[in-house]
Design goal:
By secondary structure, this protein is an alpha+beta fold. The chain is built from 5 helices and 4 strands. Strands 1-2-3-4 form a 4-stranded antiparallel sheet. The radius of gyration is 15 Å and the shape is globular. It has one domain.
């Protein structure tokens, strides 16, 4: 795996108060490059293909739109609830702005739940970035894999 290089501008954009109130790193003391490396290693150790994970996240995101604010079945094991807010949020890597749309995905037996945004999907897909521990939209690779049965 090629090691990511985070520019000083991107690092600045990840800080609290620049693009979001809480930033993208939370209380994580690791460098973003290390966060990326460790999260990709976690996926690898689980035997999960990142592209398949992103595909499942996109599927839940897209299907949830038809729920109109109600829980909607994604498949026989999970359901999702979509919350759209006004406005957009910019990617800290400066390659787009994304709707402020959050999706809660939970197992139907209520044993597990995750929340992610349109930007979260982009960050994972394009930048291998699940965000730092303590960030409001941190997506734990194992939790995502678990909710989607990967």
């Amino acid at each position: 795996m090629e090691k990511p290089i985070i520019s000083s501008k991107t690092l600045n954009n990840m800080q609290p108060g620049v693009l979001t109130a809480g930033g993208f790193l939370g209380d994580d003391k690791r460098k973003p490059e290390r966060i990326i490396e460790e999260d990709l290693n976690a996926l690898n150790s689980l035997g999960v293909d990142k592209n398949e994970l992103v595909k499942r996240m996109r599927e839940a995101f897209e299907k949830s739109a038809s729920g109109f604010g109600e829980w909607i079945e994604i498949n026989e094991k999970i359901e999702a609830l979509r919350d759209d807010s006004r406005g957009k949020i910019s990617c800290p890597f400066e390659d787009g702005a994304f709707g402020k749309t959050n999706v809660q995905v939970r197992k139907k037996d209520r044993s597990m739940q995750v929340v992610f945004s349109e930007l979260s999907i982009h960050l994972i897909d394009n930048h291998n970035f699940f965000q730092g521990h303590g960030a409001a939209y941190r997506n734990d690779p194992a939790a995502l894999a678990g909710i989607f049965g990967l």
